[in-house]
Design a protein that fits this description.
CATH class: Alpha Beta
Strand content: 5-15%
Order of helices and strands: EHEHHEHEHH
CATH topology: Rossmann fold
Distance between the termini: 14 Å
Radius of gyration: 14 Å
Number of helices: 6
Bound molecules: 4-nitrophenyl phosphate
Number of strands: 4
Number of domains: 1
Shape: globular
Largest sheet: 4 strands, parallel
Length: 151
């Protein structure tokens, strides 16, 4: 069965579209079929493509995010997806509040970071300006997520 996974951050213009784009490429490389999307808990950027500097950093590594458009997370997502993956503890808390009984489970992306790495959330590059650092972590978590799905 094709797993449906939704990645969620705050604005849906940096971290979660990067996670979507990276997991899409890596899943295809491994021959794993996934339905992927991303969304934000905030609506400021709804309808916009990913943030320019984020797109540029991703493109340099072979991830084209240009077709993605931001949207806000909605209650229906808990029925439409099998797994919802939050980028940080605030996203997680907001998603837990929204989650209907029996809805998709919510996990942190860093739950899939390499064991002992110490990462507990994906720092927001919109504020840190460290787009490559965010991508390093997103790539590592993407590998961990795909390993978990393959088990
Ligand atoms: P993201 O980063 O949650 O990784 O997409 C942000 C981008 C924009 C804003 C917040 C976070 N903002 O407040 O505009």
């Amino acid at each position: 069965m094709t797993q449906r996974i939704l990645f969620v951050c705050l604005g849906n213009i940096c971290r979660s579209p990067s996670a979507e784009g990276v997991v899409r490429v890596k899943a295809a490389q491994r021959g794993i079929n996934l339905d992927l999307d991303s969304a934000g808990t905030g609506d400021w950027h709804a309808g916009e493509p990913p943030y320019g500097p984020m797109q540029n950093a991703a493109k340099a590594r072979g991830y084209d995010l240009s077709e993605l458009r931001a949207r806000v997370v909605r209650v229906e997502d808990f029925g439409d997806f099998d797994l919802i993956v939050a980028m940080d503890a605030d996203n997680m808390a907001n998603l837990r509040r929204m989650r209907p009984e029996g809805g998709a489970e919510v996990k942190l992306f860093t739950d899939f970071a390499p064991e002992g790495s110490g990462w507990t959330e994906v720092p927001d590059p919109y504020y840190t300006r460290d787009f490559d650092g965010a991508l390093d972590l997103v790539e590592a978590c993407a590998d961990g997520l795909l390993d978990a799905l393959s088990r």
